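DM between two lab members

TW: hey, do you still have the Transposase IS66 family protein entry open?
JB: yeah, one sec
JB: this one, 200 aa:
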Amino acid sequence: MHDGFKTYNKYTKCNHSLCNAHILRELNGITDLQKQEWAVPMKKLLLEIKKEVDLSYGTHNALPLNKIEDFEVKYDKILKAGFDEDYAKNIELYSEKKVKKSVSLNLLNRLSGYKEEILAFMYDFDIPFDNNLAERDLRMAKVKQKISGTFRSSEGASAFTRIRGYVSTVRKQGKNTLDCIKSVFTATPFNPTLEYENVR
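TW: and the structure you got?
JB:
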C-alpha cells in the first residue's frame, strides 16, 4: 500500500493498493481550494464503503458482489461528473495544444486509472483502507532519530527495531505492555506470534 508515487509501480512482483487517507486529503484540497463539487460525494462514497467494510469485517472476507457492483457504479458516476466539472471550470487549459493538467484532473485520472487499487479494501478485507497503521509504527523511529540521531551500529538499529516491533505488536493485541516486557525475562515470555495464530 502506498500513496500513488509512480516509482512504486516498478515493483511488479507484488499487488498494489492506494492509501485512501491520502486520497481523502486530496479530495479536501479540491473542495476547499478548487471549489469543485464532485469531490464531496466522492469523499462521502469512500467513507460509506469503509463503514460497510467495517460492519462486515469478521463475518466476511469481502463485500457481497451486489454491494461491490453498486459502489462501483456510484464511483464511476461521480468520476464522470468530476471530469465534466473539471472541463467546464478549466476549459482554457483544455483549449491549449498541450493540455496543462489541473490538480483536480490529475486526481481524477488517478481515481480512474487506479480504481481497483483504491477500492481494494472492499474486495479483500485483509487490505486496509489506509496505511496509517504502518506510518504510525514508523513514526517512533523518526522521533528517535530526531532526538538521538542515527545508530552507532547495525546491531543497535536491529535491537531497537526488534524491541519497537514487540511493543507495537503487544499494544495492537490489547496486552499490557509492561507485563509483556517483564515476561521476556521469565521462563514463559509472551509470544505475540502464537497469540495471533490462535486468534486466526
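TW: got it. The chain has a mean pLDDT of 83. Residues 132-199 form one domain.
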